[in-house]
Write a structure and sequence with these properties.
single chain, Trna Endonuclease, Chain: A, domain 1, 3 domains, seven-stranded mixed beta sheet, 24 helices, 17 strands
Length: about 525
């Protein structure tokens, strides 16, 4: 069970139909989720099965009285009893607002919703509502910082120098219309290139626009402020001229006002201008920290907060050279897929899972086990640096291994369902990478693939022996799973392949004859 502040993840084989319990202020959200992969293959998601409506709608009944809860808790894993008991007490005492919430990538079912008696249909979040949160503005990878000067007029200001770091910060009561005028000429939103937030068209955006239009004199009291980093700034009278400006916090405001049809000189906003030349390594590290911290005030995923970290930016630049669009921020691919239509698509979260799966173990857990847990954990400081601070040629090789294994599993063992093969994908990758590391010429292969990225293509006739090796690895994993299933008929396939203990056993016991075959296959491929 993963504990994270006010969030308890309970997803497991005996979770009692609850995947997470989230406490926020005086509210408790009891969450169930149902995955569907249709949208990832361009298909319309199927409606959520009626059985899910029935099962989830029954849950509140179990928490109404002691007899019902006593029978229910017997079906739940012992490790969850204490938390579920606390939840039962909160429901009985009525000291918290209880929200039963189901999140799914399925579509909605009117028949299913018609069967609900205990839970409001509004508490079912379907794929269309989820995807709406990922609509983003036209921000492109690699956009250069703007050369145009930003001129802001202000009524009040003061300066706070940091003599130790030789950094000046200007605090201003600036005019909002100066930003609007600037952005109208900045058609590619270059001023937002370092911002980790994209354009989330939400109720908040509407409120920002409404305040600016109808109550501009209240804008100052209603807004948390805008943070800008720049290379240089100079003040003359009641105007500050900013060189190489980049908004790192406040992008939502800019997006909300970018289509304003008039200017309101009465609307002011708190502006913080940090003069931070980025030539030195220390300055770049400080900038990464500022971006990360200033955007934590509102909920953002850690992988988006890392989007403009220098390691992520460099990865994006290197992958582009290999005809791979590396999506550092959620939503960037949707904005750029027409421009990069012939490129492969790789998300930072997916790469993190690939790199972690290739770590045989991290402390007491297997790399695959961690890769299949909470993705955000892979972007915590210690793990993040360990995974991504590696030579690009090795990162690229691991990515191509993953793609090769994915293709092999897709076109082989067709009697198995797609989801059955995918559940073993990271385990197969982990074993494949371990085999490669044990081969004598692995460093040469890594280097050669970087020089000739067209190699290791599934359609290449020289990869036939390599394909057979991957199938052999998969068969080994599948038979291992089947053998354990005979011992325990309640063993869930997903729990098995994300279990650290089972993955470590499979990594320790794979047939060593595969080593020789893989070495022959790679030598033949790169000879």
């Amino acid at each position: 069970m993963l504990w994270g502040g006010e969030i308890v993840i309970t997803d497991g084989p005996k979770d009692g139909g609850i995947d997470a319990i989230v406490e926020r202020g005086n509210s408790i959200y009891i969450v169930q989720s149902k995955f569907n992969d249709a949208i990832f293959s361009g298909r319309e998601p199927t409606p959520l099965p009626i059985s899910f409506y029935n099962d989830f709608d029954k849950l509140p009944e179990f928490f109404k009285d002691e007899d019902g809860f006593r029978d229910y808790i017997k079906t739940v894993d012992l490790s969850f009893h204490r938390k579920y008991g606390q939840l039962f007490n909160s429901i009985r005492q009525k000291n918290k607002d209880i929200i039963w919430w189901l999140i799914t990538l399925h579509g909605g079912s009117k028949s299913g919703e018609g069967r609900l008696r205990n839970i409001d249909a509004e508490n079912f979040q379907y794929y269309d509502k989820i995807l709406a949160n990922f609509e983003v503005s036209l921000e492109v990878v690699g956009t250069p910082l703007p050369l145009k000067l930003l001129k802001l007029h202000f009524s009040e200001s003061f300066t706070t120098p940091d003599h130790k770091r030789n950094i000046n910060t200007y605090i201003l009561q600036g005019r909002v219309d100066d930003f609007i005028k600037y952005i109208k000429d900045d058609v590619e939103f270059s001023i937002l290139a370092r911002n980790v937030r994209a354009d989330l068209r939400s109720k908040i955006n509407e409120d920002i626009g409404h305040t600016y239009d109808t109550s501009p004199d209240e804008f100052w009291y209603s807004h948390n402020g805008i943070t800008i980093v720049c290379d240089d700034a100079s003040v003359k009278g009641k105007e500050i001229v900013i060189s190489q400006p980049s908004i790192i916090n406040g992008a939502q405001t800019i997006h909300a006002l970018k289509n304003a049809h008039h200017f309101n000189p009465d609307a002011n906003v708190l502006v913080r201008v940090i003069v931070l030349p980025t030539a030195s390594k220390d300055a770049k590290n400080l900038l990464n920290k500022i971006i990360f911290r200033t955007n934590q005030q509102n909920k953002m995923y850690k992988y988006n907060l890392r989007a403009n970290d220098s390691m992520q930016v460099l990865l994006g630049q290197e992958f582009i050279k290999k005809y791979v669009f590396y999506e550092r921020r959620s939503g960037e691919w949707d904005l750029n897929k027409l421009k990069y239509g012939n490129f492969s698509h790789l998300k930072s979260t997916q790469l993190a899972q690939i790199l972690m799966a290739c770590q045989e173990r991290w402390h007491s857990e297997s790399g695959v086990g961690l890769a299949r847990k909470n993705i955000e954990d892979l972007f915590e400081d210690e793990i993040y640096k360990y995974l991504f601070d590696e030579d690009f040629s090795k990162i690229y090789f691991k990515y191509r291994l993953y793609k090769f294994v994915e293709e092999v599993l897709k076109y082989n063992r067709k009697k198995l369902e797609k989801r059955q093969k995918r559940v073993a994908l990271l385990t197969c990758l982990a074993i494949f990478w371990k085999v490669v590391q044990h081969c004598n010429h692995s460093e040469k292969w890594i280097s050669r693939l970087g020089e000739t990225p067209g190699k290791m293509n599934y359609k290449d006739k020289f990869t036939e022996l390599l394909k057979r090796s991957v199938v052999e690895i998969f068969d080994y994993c599948w038979h291992f799973w089947k053998k354990e299933l005979k011992k325990d008929r309640d063993l869930n396939i997903h729990d098995f392949f994300k279990s650290s203990s089972w993955n470590l056993k499979m990594l320790d016991n794979y047939p060593k004859k595969i080593n020789r075959r893989v070495e022959v296959a790679f030598n033949r491929l790169f000879e």
